[in-house]
Write a structure and sequence with these properties.
This protein is mainly α and about 240 residues long. The chain has one domain. It has ten helices and no strands. It has helices at about 5-20, 25-35, 40-60, 70-90, 95-115, 125-140, 145-155, 160-185, 190-215, 220-240. The chain is globular, with a radius of gyration of 17 Å.
Amino acid sequence: MTEIPWLALTVISLAAFTQGFLGFGFGILAMGILSATRDLYYATALVNLAGLVLCLVILWPLRRKILWQRIAPVLLLLVPGLFLGVQALVSMDPAWLRRILGFTIISFAAWSLLERSKLRQLSRWWSIPAGLGSGALSGAFNMGGPPVIAYFFRQPFTAEEIKASLQAIFLVTGLFRIPLVGAKGMLTGQVLTHSLLCAPGIVIAALLGIFLCRRVSPEKFRTAVWVVFGVMGLYLILQS
């Protein structure tokens, strides 16, 4: 009889709700808790597989909202960014990289909260650092969200357009990462079984997050985004 992983089910569902509501946050929340309570390889593999399911669940009802012209250059730069991230992880102190990233995120979140009313269409040249940065952070820390989150949320797009576009980016990143996880022998029978057990909770929690998000004003939604973004930065600093 298969043991039910109650902790993993709870954490994955909570993280799925967060991403359904905000459009991001699944990886750092799920990894932050699971890696502190379970084997790191187990946590990494489970979060990767669960993340693919989650992205598909959120993306399907929002698929017509994807900003293809905005995400195309980001996606093209993800792969070289992944290699840069792996190289940085090998050649630099990961603790210092986390601190720098954490302070950068907190500073950007604070500035965005103060300048909430000054959203504007950014040049597509900004997709270059967004794509490279997202790929690099995915390669180095398995957390590529901050650059693309900052890129999309500083522009006057709707919440659904941003969430759809982010999920498309996260889905492609996750698909590239799965072979790397498999090559390291992390996709065990236990991980695959637990991923299947988590799937119903992911679907319900993500759809609930999407439902509640539609009932929040755009101003309050963006405020919540930058507060959570700042918390992500603080987490990275404390973790290093």
